[in-house]
Every structure is written in structure tokens, then in C-alpha cells.
Amino acid sequence: MSETITEMPPVIPAAAGIQQLSMQQALNRALDEVLAQNPKTVIFGEDCGRLGGVFRITDGLQAKHGEDRVFDTPLAESGILGMSVGLAMAGFHPIPEVQFDGFAYPAINQIVCQIARMNYRSRGTLPMPITLRVPSFGGIRAPEHHGESLEALFAHVPGLKVVSPSNPHDAYHLLKYAATRPDPVIFMEPKSRYWQKGPVDLTPAAADTTAPDGGNLTGARVAREGRHLTLVAWGAMVSRCLQVAELAAEDGIDIEVLDLRWLKPIDAEALARSVAKTRRAVVVHEAPLTSGLGAEVAQLITQGCFDTLKAPVERVTGFDVPYPSGDLEDEYIPNIDRILFGIQRVLEYRRG
Amino acid sequence: MTTKPALAAVDDDAAPLSNQQLRELYTLMAAVRHLDTSAVAWQRQGIIPGYAPELGQEAAQVGSGYAVDRSRDFVFPTYREMGVARAMGLDMVGYMSTHKATWHGGMYNPVESRFAPIQAVVAGSVLHAVGWAHGQTLAAPDEGTGVAMTYFGDGASSQGDVHEAMNFAAVMKAPVVFFIQNNGWAISVPTERQVAGGSVAARAAGYGIPALQVDGNDVVAVYEATRSAFAHCRNGNGPVVIEAMTYRRGPHSTADDPGRYRTLEEERLDAGEDPLERFKQRLLADGVADEAFFADAQRKAEEEAEVIRMGIQDLGPRPGAEMFNLVFQEPTPALQSQATAWREESEHV
Amino acid sequence: MAEISFPLPDLGEGLIEATVLDWLVEPGQQVERNQPIVELETSKSALELPSPQAGKVVRIHGAPGETINVGAPLIVFEVPDDTAGIVGTVPKDEAPKRRVRLSAVLDED
């Protein structure tokens, strides 16, 4: 069995600008820098201020940047998101936090009817540069409504963009990028990956690039190259798919792992590029199967690669059940065997 | 039990309204009355597909809108604040375009007008006012701050967002005027079946917010209450709740039939005095205006409505490309490709 | 690393304070859960407090003879910051386990 179960090499060159950080540290650092760079940035939510957030993502930011810039709100998600709309209208860049995925539900009205539409409703005169941080997905044996995967819900709403990092490096750069955009971005943080450390290259994007993201933050990312099949994943499922790829390699199957990162807009070109090469695809997500984002991914792959696809795109996902209690969590979240079964079904498929 | 906190400040130069201002208020109310009844007629004539009349609420809307300082304040309306819009000097063709089904938020510029896009979600923008107001505190905490005024009704007061907004505003001492027009009806449901306790203003005490319940059919009383509330907010004392007691004399919308839930006799008894006629009698009694002035105000109102009618009739449909172009500041490739497909397959040019 | 402060609990139905008799641990020391950390005397009894958690002692409050109010800091621990927050547990990165084997004839056309 392979010892390498993370996507990054275990030994990191001590290059300038590269540090070993957890995703929690990387996100904290990104927010710190965003606050320093844009005086109109404000961070707020439940327990974001003095406590530093229940996951400590905003740890120390209030002490450093002041209570006007980083503050606690009353315990009401609709209030937090509705207030964000007004702050954005007043020229601020709000970075609200919803404490857990499931608590975005009480704010859905403000997210869907207001944040997503105000730019449109106002004919572009009232942009909504709101970066909504949502600790997301399952895997930490938490109480009810603390393990939900809302990406399909958000991605379905016109006017929203959705992104989810899978490692500390991307978390740092994607958050800094999202928090400087003029449109609302739902930033889904995989809470089960907050504490694992990885190398983060803190070097800013080259100044001479014309792309606002330095040319590498708006699309998907090939997390591992392979020839026989593409595993498409995001958030915490990326590291699991990398584990699966290691195991598949023992069986002679060379798997490519595509970290989608942006769930809206989806990088359709990267999907087509990868699957045009491998001709087989399995999409993996924690959210329930039906109308999940996997269906969208499967359609985009089919659209782009139908001629050369060897098999229908498989989906390995959570089930169409309420997210279960911690004891059953491992039965719900796609595990290594279920992903391997999905891969096997694709490998065995024969036309006609 | 009297728990109602008093306003901590009133307007420093709270001089009585001059005769000139009183006449201006009447002119505005007359214009609003005529535009409102005209809009109902336009709906019957097929010029606009629908309209939400504010008949009977002219005093509440003009009196409050007249108190707004457009150099620093910002108003968050619902879909029944035509009188506020007119009092604030909005481009009324741009305002009425929402009822022409030209563009949901209206075609006026909300930033320049200091009047947020028309809001169809009941209580949808109440929290926006709190956020905007807190933004003023953050931006310039010590100067005479801009005040947010958010409009909503007795029906909207049932929404949870109103509670969240009042609580947030009070906790943060945000300069917000919560302006409730209690017009007796939320479509078919009367206030007594809508508002437990009978008064939205009474709820303010629970948040420690000072509240003023005013005769919403008395334009001067509404103006003075709003001006006092603005002064209170501007001086850093936090939010104020104003409940203007008025009456929705017309239907909820041009598609509504009040005869199904209230009788004409009930309307006659409950509506109280017509705010326009009442103000006219007061101005006459005080010698502030004469019949010639009222006739002139009516003539101006008719001319104005006619210009607005022609303006909205001239409004063509917006270019379909705006559907795609105005979703994001930075459009996505998927949306751009949908726009391309639409242009190729559907644009009838 | 993060610090977790442990406030003096009510040691007996409505007590408001306790007096430190003797500290059994000192700053810098690693302690285990349930390890005795301090001897206290209340108006009802003298007792020994078991540590509420494992961790490194950062600070102790109250010299012997001093009184501490219920709710005031008694001892501060340093703990790794890889805690999941107020709820949940951090999943361990374990070596992957599998039951399924892949078999395929890959026609490399």
C-alpha cells in the first residue's frame, strides 16, 4: 500500500514564500491580507469577532483590524445576509460567515432573492461584492444541519458564483481572489479539511499578467494526472479521490483527478480536456444524488466528449436522505470502496 | 405601563413648515393622487399590466418622503411607495416602468435617486436598510450621518426579517427609520388578524427603540415625526420606529377585488378623512392657499401624469441582451454562451 | 496552538468562591485528564480537583491562601489548535482501506 495519501509530496522544498499551513491558517491569513488591502472590507457573523469564529478562521482579526472591521452580529442568518446587502449598497465589501452550511437555510431568502439579484434588479448600479463564507460538507461527526452540501442549490441560483477549495494553497488564493470580486461568491470551506497542513505558496500572482486571477484561479485544477479515467471532485472529496487513485494504480489503472474548484461557473473546458484524454469519468460528491451537481458535470462531459466516451459518466455521491448522524456518516459519504465500484462499472462497460 | 422611550433628539431647526412648504406638500399630494388614479386607469386601458395603488396613503408617503435629505439619506421602498418616490423627485417614468413590466426594479438610477430598487419581497429590504445604515456609522461615525428609511406595512411586520432588522439596528445603534404604513389591510387580511397586540409601534419597546405612532392621514404630523426621527438617528441615537396609521382606500392591486373581503360601508366607516381633502380644508382655514391654488395644483398634476403616460407608452422592451449582461459584473463563460445561443436562435431582429 | 481557560466551577450547590490550598501542577507541565491539579477549600469542604482535560499548563491562578470566585479563571491549558471548533471532531488522515479490486481489460484504441 502506498504511503502517499495526500496530494502533495511529503517533502517540501524550503523555497521562499512557501509555508506549511493548515487550511484554517491559510484562510485566516488570506482574510488578514484582504482586510489590510481593502479598507472597505468588513467581516462579520456569529462569533466571528472576539472568539475568532467557531473554527477560528477569523482568529485574531478583530484584535488586529478593530471592532469596526471584524464584528459579531446577533444570532440570525437572514439578518447577517440582509445586512450584507445594505453594506454592499453602501460601498463595502462584506465577508459574512454563516457558521455552518445548514444555517444558510434560514438566510436563503436574502441569498436568493436579494444578494443574487440586486445587481440585476438595479441594472448594474448596485453590485453585490459579497463573499459568503460557509463551512461546508460533512465528515466531522457534528450535529444535525452541520454537514450539508449546498453547492447545487447555490449553483442553481442566477447571480451567484460558487467555489470550494480542497487544500490550504487553493484556500488561500481562492479566498483572496473571491474576496476581491465585484460579484457575490459563495465560498464553501470543507470543514473536515481545516486542520491538515499543506504547502502554501504565498507569492502574489505575477503583476504583469492581464488576468485578474493571475491566470490560474478561475478554473479547475488537475490534482493528479492519469490516462485511464478522470475522477471529478471538489472540497473534501478531492483528497479521497487522490487516495483512490493511489489504490487504483496498484491495480494498473492510471487515474486523473480533476479538482473542479469552481462549482459555478464550472470549467467545462477542463472537463472536456481531461476526459477527452481518459475517455472515462466518475464524478464524486457528498451531496445527495438526485439533481446534484454531478448531473451537471456528467452532462458537460457528455456534451464535450460524447464521441470518445467509453462509458456513461458514473456518479458516486451521498444518498437522497437527510444527512445522517455521525455514526452513519461513513456510510453516507462516498468511501473508497464505493468510488472503486463506480470506477469498476465504468471500466467494465461495453457498448452494445 | 409606559415603556416607550422618548426620542433623544429633535431637529435643531424644527421650525414650523412655511406656507410655501405647506403648499408644496399639497402640490405633491395632488400630483400623487392624480398619478395613482391615472395608473389604475392605465391598467384598465391596457397601457400597463398591473399596479399597486396607494390611494389614501398620500399623506403618509409624501410627508415622510419630504423629510429625506437626498444628499445623504437613502430610502428602501416596497412596491407601494409611489408617493415617496414622487416626493423625493424621482424620474417617475423610470419609477412607473416597473408597473409597465419594463424592468423589475424600475428604470430609475437608485444610486442617484437615493431610492433603492423597487422591492417585491414583503419586508425584503428592511434588513438592507440596517446594513446600509451601519455602513454610514462605519464610514463617518462622528459626522451628521446619513439615515436609512425603510418602508413596510402591517402585513410585512409579520415577517421574521422585521424582527431581525429591528434587533440588529438596536444592537448596533444603526441610524434607521422603520417607517410602517399601517393601512389596515394586507390584501384581504385586516390588521386585527395580522398584528398581535394591534400595534407594530408597540413592539419597538421590546428592542428599546423609541417609537412614534402618528396620524398617517395628517401630512404635517407625518412630516414632523419623520423629521424628528431623522434628527434622532443623525445624532447617533440609533433607530426609530414610526407607525403611520392610515387606510388603503383602493384594492391591494389592480387584480384585487376588495368586495370579496370588505363592504363599501366598512370602507366608508374605516377609511376616515381623505388626507388630501383634509389638508385642503386646513390650508383654506389657515389662509395658506385659496381655490385658485388648488385648481392650479390639479392642473399641474394632470399635465404631469400626461407626460408620464406618454413616457411609459414610449418605453419599448429592453434589449434582450440585458437579461444576460446585467446578471454579473463579471459574466461567466456559461452565461455568455447562453447569450450567444439566444442571439442566434431567438433574437428577432 | 490554542489556549483553553478553565474557570472555577461551582463545587457545591450555589457556592460562590473557593480558596486555594495547594497547587499540584505548575506551568509548563503536561497533565492528563483526571490528573489532580489543585487542592481547594470551600465553605463546605476541602477537595481535590481533577483536570478537565489533557494539555500543557500555561498559567495557574491564585497562590495558596488566595480566594477565587466561581467563574473566574483557575487554570489555562495549551491545546493543539486542530480542534474542529465548538462541535465535531477532526477526521484523522488514515491510510486508506479497500475491499474492492479493479480489474479491466483496457483496449488502448
From TrEMBL, chain C:
Transmembrane residues, as ranges?
none
Give the Gene3D superfamilies listed for this entry. 2.40.50.100
- Please name the Pfam families in this protein's record: Biotin_lipoyl
Residue limits of the Lipoyl-binding domain?
1-78
Q: Does the keyword rRNA-binding apply?
A: no
* InterPro entries, per the entry: 2-oxoA_DH_lipoyl-BS (IPR003016), 2-oxoacid_DH_E2_comp (IPR050743), Biotin_lipoyl (IPR000089), Single_hybrid_motif (IPR011053)
**Cofactor(s) annotated in UniProt:** (R)-lipoate
Enzyme nomenclature, EC number: 2.3.1.12
Q: Which UniProt keywords apply?
A: Acyltransferase, Lipoyl, Pyruvate, Transferase
Output the lineage of the source organism: Bacteria, Bacillati, Actinomycetota, Actinomycetes, Micrococcales
- State the species of origin: Paenarthrobacter nicotinovorans
- UniProt cross-references to SUPFAM superfamilies, sorted A to Z: Single hybrid motif
Protein name as catalogued: Pyruvate dehydrogenase E2 component (Dihydrolipoamide acetyltransferase)
**PROSITE patterns attached to this UniProt entry:** BIOTINYL_LIPOYL, LIPOYL
Mind listing the GO molecular function terms for this protein? dihydrolipoyllysine-residue acetyltransferase activity
UniProt key word Acyltransferase: yes
